[in-house]
Amino acid sequence: MLEFMDYVQSAFYAGSRWNTDNSYASLTAATTNLLDFRTPHGVRLHVSSLSSPNFATSYTLGNKGVVDGSFSFLFSNLGVKVASRSSAVYLGHLVRGYRHLQELRKPEDASAWETVVDEKVVQKRDALLYGRMYLPGSTLEALYLRRLSPSRLLSIRAVSGAQLPHGGTLLAQLQNDQGKYTTEYLCSTDSALLGFRGLYNFGYDPRDENSQLDSSAPAHPWDHKSGRLSVGAEAYFSPMNKSGGLSTGLRFTTLPVHTGIPYTMTLTLNPLMGNLSSSYAVKAGSDLSLCTRFDFNVYSYESDVTIGLELWRRESSTAWARKMLRSAWRNAPRPAGESTFVSSDFVMKQQDATGVIKARMSAAGKASLLWEGRVKELLVSVGAGFDMKSATRALGSVGLEVSYSS
Amino acid sequence: MAFNFNWSPLIADTERVRAMLTTALNKSPKPPIIVDDILVNELNLGPTPPDLEILEIGDLAEDRFRGIFKMSYTGDAYLTLKTRVQANPLNTYLSTKPSFASPQPLAASSGLTIPLQITLSDIRLSGFVILVFSKQKGVTLVFRNDPIESLKVSSTFDAIPFVREYLQRTIENQLRVLFMEDLPAIIHKLSLRMFNPEYQALEDIRSQAAEAVQPRVDPFVDSSAEAVGGERTPADGDVTETYASFSQKNLLRLAALSESQRTLSLFTPGIRDTVYRAWATTADRGQGMSGYSTPNPRIATLSRLNSSFDRSATLSSTASITSGTGSHITRPSLVSNASAPTTYALGSGRPRPHAQRKRKHRVVNLRKTAVENDASDAVSQSSGYDDSASASGSRRSKETSKSITDPSNHLPSALREGEVCTPPRSPKKIVGFTTDKADGLASSSTPSRRPITPLHKVIQPPEDDDPTPRASMVLPAKENEKRPQRQHLPRMQTLPSRPKGELYRSHSEVKLPDLSNAFNEGSTGGILEQAWMMKMASEIARRVAEEKSGGERWRRTSEGGASAGGDAPPAYAS
């Protein structure tokens, strides 16, 4: 479950029409959501408020140590218009599950950003400021997001803490999204780490006026017309300690035009370390998603298999009506460009859920169970981690998180 | 001042050290590159002990010690560690950073763990060690500087120079921390376990609860168990003592010894392989005096001698020395008494030659292995002196002594042997004060005495290192005062004997027969005669010393011998 501030940030991305899925960093988002979900640890209480569309506050109290907590503030010059009350928040937006990728979208014209204020042309540039103070550790997190242009996003993240080397670290990131491809440049003050990420999408180019998105039904389930193939790579290098990293990735995912079962396949490879990871995630039904991932290292022969599922529980008053719909209508492809948000986060396709169960288990003996849902006015997350191989600590961690927002 | 630094038990008991090292290495937060527990796979301290040089001793008592040593180690110890390391530098780099500001790479930080085996060898240490020992607080050992001079690190990745250099650097740094911080803690813990019974009891209870009772071979553990239980068969004790380690058991014995000084208890526990130099010097004093003491104590001493011979036959000379010293300690006030039965006294105090014969007999058995040539040389010299001495003495005694010495010429050597060896810890053989009894014993053993081959202290190196006796001769008057006491308790104690310098022994060899003859007469004759005999004896001794210093056999010790010859006579003449 997203924390409230992450929820507001994702709303900011959506409101600013920034596609977070079109990035190499989120190449395996579907798999990550299904297999690498975070289970709560200990008891934690969140109280949040979106007092105005531009300003949000959040307070957290936990039991790590004696008592710990944090308070955070967020300001955005773009009015975030999302439901903020915990009783009204669409659970599908808070809990990330299988990720339906939307069609690529051409970057906006710069002229669309220009508004005339007092007879002067002013470009609106959405920005977001976020700060979080952890107590009693006195660690400060800060985030600055700014849309430099319709195709550019600058984000600066900083952490300041006494226990950190040099008192803190700062990461600057410039993302360039051209739809067909995206590039990212990273720079960290910590040992001067430099990074580059790139993603290229085959097939449909949204910038090309002539190319038309093929909306015809695919001939067979493996017809690549209904899906998208993406390749990407990332590279990091630190000139100070002369170390680096490299990885490449491949993804094929079905698009909304696909009439069959949505699925996502990814393959990532780390050629330096010999790490090979392949995953297959499938949305088996409207409320069920399954995922498997196989990790293998060609140098050390270490391998692992992880399987996971998520199950949504919905109780909607219109369920009876939906059952009466013809199946062809239910899965009818929607015309392109219909959705108001480019991001899949805020696309409401069905009734809100009351709860979701996530589970994962790996061949190494690690298992996790998580339930997240709405109880009265509160959002509750209960989870536990198990370690089957260790007899002494079979029950690794148990946690409960309760959130309230207004 | 000398310390016995026993290296062998350390070599034998690496199991516990390994376990402790393992826990110490895993206790502190490990660098993120190490993703598994560090296992000490192999530990070999090697046969070469480190060289220790005493720089300063600040405090010295039976239950505490403080000193500074200069240590240098060039042995062939080696240590093998096993663990798993993270080979991806990005992974280790990111694991230490806050996730909020991390680039969060997709797969570039995926881990690659590699089993790693590191061997540390060619360890060269040199540094100043501060050692503080307290019975209550255990041993504290601190390195005043960084002791590591050089070290060779060989690992699985030796083929990659970059990794090799990195490992070398990292491990050297870690080892420095280990030596400066962890090692003192380990040693302290170990010492607490050994010396502090309460701590041991706690530990034992803990360990018993944790693990089922299993046979323990480890000497440290054994001693600890004994300390807690308080009961133990002597056989077990001997087994553990084979390692002359500084165990709880030994400490308890030391404590018992020092306690016994304050009581009148006749039993004193003996400690093997221990040399009390301070007591040895007092024993010398006693010896110096013994020649003039009354006959009674001498008889007693004679019996001591015999017993000591027995002892020497079975045990090493050091062992016998130890037992003798143990008896000394029990009665500090009676030191002179205990020392009275020295070899010098023996010969002179014995009224009859039979006792000598008996002694000789024992010697013969002992010394079969001795080189005959050496013995014969020494004997020939000594025999001549015997004659002269006997001439001065009464005829009868002279004849007897001659009859004893002439055939094999070993009498002096026998006496010498007696002086060196000490009797067992408790007086097993008690000879009656009556001379008859002694005679009977002696006569029974006479026949076998003849064929004896001589023995020479020269051959035995361990007893020759102590040049102390000279100092002891300074205080004859005191000995006289103490002498009356000696008569009360002579038998209870074992003979104190202490190692003597070769030179000195050579003197004694010569003197003993003379003195014995003289005193044989002296006991029958008047005081004047006795005094005269003393003078003669001293002269003879001097002459012998001179001769020996000139002789090839004694050349090695001639310088010392000359000085000894000069000094020795006054001690006896007074």
Question: What's this model, at a glance?
Answer:
Chain A is 9% helix and 48% strand.
What is the CATH homology-level superfamily of chain A? Porin
**What's the total helix number of chain B?**
23
Mean pLDDT of chain A: 85
Q: Largest interface, by Cβ-Cβ below 8 angstroms: which chains and how many residues each?
A: A-B, 48 and 22 residues
The radius of gyration of chain A is: 22 Å
Number of helices of chain A: 6
Count the domains of chain A.
1
Estimate what percentage of residues of chain B fall within beta strands. 5-15%
- Biggest sheet layout of chain A: 19 strands, mixed, barrel
Shape descriptor of chain A: globular
The overall pLDDT of chain B, averaged over residues, is 60
SSE series of chain B: HHEEEEHEEEHHHHHHHHHHHHHHHHHHHH
- Quickly give the structural class of chain A: mainly beta
Helix content of chain A: under 10%
Measured between the Cα atoms of the first and last residue of chain A, the distance is 17 Å
Strand elements of chain B, count: 7
The rounded distance between the terminal residues' Cα atoms of chain B is 30 Å
Low-pLDDT residue intervals, each spanning 5 or more residues of chain B = 212-244, 283-353, 355-364, 368-424, 426-449, 454-494, 499-524, 552-574
| Shape, principal axes of CA atoms of chain B | elongated
| Low-confidence blocks of residues of chain A | 335-342
Which structural class fits the helix and strand makeup of chain B? alpha+beta
What does this protein structure show overall?
Chain B: Residues 351-365 have a biased composition (Basic residues). Chain B: Residues 316-502, 543-574 are annotated as: Disordered. Chain B: Residues 333-342, 402-411 have a biased composition (Polar residues). The complex is a heterodimer of chains A (406) and B (574). Chain A has six helices and 21 strands. Chain A is mainly beta and 406 residues long. Chain A has one domain (4-106, 114-204, 224-405): Porin, CATH 2.40.160. In chain A, the strands form two sheets. Chain A has a 19-stranded mixed β-barrel. In chain A, β4 (114-117) and β5 (120-123) form a beta hairpin. The model of chain A is unreliable at 335-342 (pLDDT under 50). By secondary structure, chain B is α+β, with helices and mostly antiparallel strands. Chain B has two domains: 8-91 and 108-197, Super Roll (Bactericidal permeability-increasing protein, domain 1); 277-573, no CATH class. In chain B, strands 1, 2, 3, 4, 5, 6 and 7 form a seven-stranded antiparallel β-sheet that branches. Residues 212-244, 283-353, 355-364, 368-424, 426-449, 454-494, 499-524 and 552-574 of chain B have low confidence and may be disordered. The interface between A and B is medium-sized, with 48 and 22 residues.
